[in-house]
């Protein structure tokens, strides 16, 4: 495959042939053999993009639209792929220990109505000034960030930071043309 020669590693298509690690509870399967889980853990790999993620999720899971927990920690992702925003039931997203550079990538996650727990520590973006405040302003429904509970004081600090650092968008005044 060409991408193997270039060092690019997307979600491997052969993942559907892998047997999941055993957990505390046995994995339930549908009659078609697909997993009935609501979580997908692809942590500790060398993924640097999420090419084919939807396709693989559909092959592995009976109801990929019910996906509530995605763990992509400790990979080589450099951005937050828009494919993640298609899972509207997503409540837990682990992206820590990747290579995500820009804090603005967080904006993509604002469309996820149920997202409550997010990890981003261990990415280069963590070094940007106002990292925690920016994330909490952008994602006000988050209750846990980087494995730490979000307090009222955190929200207050984030709001003050927002007022001091984020310029409000100016309202465009429509001019009457006669």
Automatic annotation (TrEMBL):
This is Leucine-rich repeat-containing protein 51. Pfam families: LRR_9. Residues 1-30 are annotated as: Disordered. Gene3D superfamilies: Ribonuclease Inhibitor (3.80.10.10). It is found in: Cytoplasm. The keyword Electron transport does not apply. PROSITE patterns: LRR. The keyword Magnesium does not apply. InterPro entries: Leu-rich_rpt (IPR001611), LRR_dom_sf (IPR032675). Keywords: Cytoplasm, Leucine-rich repeat, Repeat. PANTHER family: LEUCINE-RICH REPEAT-CONTAINING PROTEIN 51. It comes from the Eukaryota. GO terms for cellular component: cytoplasm. The gene is LOC111540905. Transmembrane segments: none annotated. The lineage of its organism: Eukaryota, Metazoa, Chordata, Craniata, Vertebrata. Its main location: cytoplasm.
């Amino acid at each position: 495959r060409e991408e193997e020669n270039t060092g690019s590693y997307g979600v491997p298509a052969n993942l559907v042939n892998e047997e999941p690690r055993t957990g505390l509870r046995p994995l339930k399967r549908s009659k078609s053999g697909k997993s009935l889980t609501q979580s997908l853990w692809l942590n500790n790999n060398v993924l640097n993009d999420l090419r084919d993620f939807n396709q693989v999720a559909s092959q592995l899971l009976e109801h990929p639209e019910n996906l509530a927990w995605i763990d992509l920690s400790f990979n080589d992702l450099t951005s937050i792929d828009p494919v993640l925003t298609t899972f509207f039931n997503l409540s837990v997203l682990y992206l820590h220990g990747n290579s995500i550079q820009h804090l603005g990538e967080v904006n993509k996650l604002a469309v996820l109505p149920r997202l409550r727990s997010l990890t981003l520590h261990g990415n280069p973006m963590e070094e940007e000034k106002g990292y925690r405040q920016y994330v909490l302003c952008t994602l006000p429904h988050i209750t846990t960030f980087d494995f730490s509970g979000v307090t009222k004081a955190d929200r207050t600090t984030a709001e003050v930071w927002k007022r001091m650092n984020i310029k409000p968008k100016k309202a465009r005044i429509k001019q009457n043309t006669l």
